[in-house]
Each structure stands twice: as C-alpha cells, then as structure tokens.
Design brief:
Alpha-Beta Plaits, eight-stranded antiparallel β-barrel, 8 helices, 42% helix, globular
Length: 240
C-alpha cells in the first residue's frame, strides 16, 4: 500500500509534465485525488505541515481538501483538488513532488495516517462561471458524454445555466472534461453555495426552472449520470 500511494501521487505529477509538453500554457486544469481517510485530523496536519514548508510555499497551485459528505457507494471519503493555471505550473509541481524532501515526507505522512489512494483524474473546465473558491459546499455530478455529443452537451448546459441565472441568484457552476483518468466517467458538473441551505435552495430553484426541463429534453440521450456527490470544503491552501 505504501508503494501504491507514493506511485499514484508522484507519478500523477509526472503525467502532468508530459501533458504540459504538448499543451503549453493551456488551462486552468483541475486535478482531483480521491482518497479514503479514517483520520481526517492527521490528514489536515500533514497538509498543513507541507504547505508551511519551503517546498509547499513554492507549490504552483491553489489546493483544497474536501469531504465527500454523501457519495453513494464510493469508498473515497475526501478528495484533494489542485488548480493549475497552465502547463508550466503542472511541470513545476511535478518537479517538486518527485525531488523535494518536504514533498516526499508529506507523502510518507499521508501513508502513516492511514490514507489510501482511490482514484485520480485531471482536466479543464469548458464552463467555469464565478469563483468557486468563494463557495464551500457543492453538488457534483459525474457523467459520461460520448465524444460526438460533447460539444452539443456543453452548449446546451451553458445555455441552460445562462437562462437560469436571470431568475436565480447562482453562485459558482461549471462543466469539467477529464483528459486523464476517465475510466469511470468523462465529465463532472458542479454547482456551488456558501452553505448547505443555500446550495439546497439554489438546486431546488434550478430543477424547477423551465430551462432545466428544456435542457433535459435536449441532452437526455447524450449523457449518463454515474454518481452525484455532496461536497464540503474543509480547508484551502492558496498559492503563495
């Protein structure tokens, strides 16, 4: 398990570097690391220690630790999300994670606290409206959209949310596309709120809006919903 965890996290960084060579300066990219932790306090302590270190202060991404409050039968309990603004930042992160003693010690501490790596994926967001870092609670939908339908789905989603935004005070929302790690789904959709009650209110109004029914009639045959998750941000680490 120790070797598996180190390889999953460190080799993911190598993957970012390889991707960056072909897509210079594109972004931002969102990298998700889903994990299982029975000791969240130790997990937070390990993350605090790394991001307070010299190497952590140089880490070129905004990072957030999130709890998966409800996620169906998935075994992951949390995920760490990295926001890279471009491929250069991905390459810098790869170098830090494979060579910095503080980073290697961080991975060892994660293992020592009982963290198990579950899965990871990364990609950009075709729709990324409002600043999601200002929200703390999210609904996240994991979906499968076949390649021939992806452009039409993104256009329909964007049109629907634009119509809803005229009548509903939306917070952050978006549609992400997975480049790497798409063995389970191809896209994720999110809607944010500053609290669970606010998110629930937004979701209820969105689902009741005529534009949502119109959207469903357009895309019902385009996508398969794999899972829905309620997410709570526990702590953020802003790029320094």
């Amino acid at each position: 398990m120790k070797i598996r965890l180190l390889l999953v996290l460190v080799l993911s960084a190598f993957g970012f570097k390889a991707f960056g060579n072909d897509h210079v300066q594109a972004g931002p990219f969102y990298a998700f690391y889903h994990i299982q932790s029975t000791n969240p306090a130790a997990l937070v302590a390990a993350m605090d220690k790394f991001w307070a270190s010299d190497c952590g202060k140089k880490y070129p991404a905004d990072v957030a630790l999130s709890e998966e409050v409800f996620n169906g039968g998935n075994t992951s309990t949390h995920f760490i999300i990295n926001t890279f603004q471009n491929s250069d930042d991905q390459a810098k992160a790869a170098e830090i994670m494979r060579s910095c003693p503080d980073a290697l010690a961080f991975l060892e501490e994660l293992y020592g606290s009982g963290v198990q790596a579950i899965n990871q994926y990364m990609g950009p967001a075709a729709v990324d409206e409002n600043d999601w870092t200002q929200d703390s609670t999210f609904s996240k939908f994991d979906i499968i959209v076949e390649p021939q339908n992806q452009a039409a789905y993104a256009a329909a989603y964007s049109e629907m949310m634009e119509k809803v935004s005229k009548d509903v005070d939306l917070r952050s929302y978006g549609l992400g596309s997975i480049y790497f790690g798409r063995d389970k789904f191809t896209h994720w959709v999110w809607t944010g709120g500053r609290s669970i009650p606010e998110l629930s209110s937004i979701s209820e109004k969105l689902l009741a809006h005529p534009a949502f029914a119109e959207f469903n009639s357009k895309v019902g045959g385009m996508r398969t919903i794999v899972n829905t998750t309620q997410v709570q941000i526990l702590k953020g680490y802003i790029r320094q």
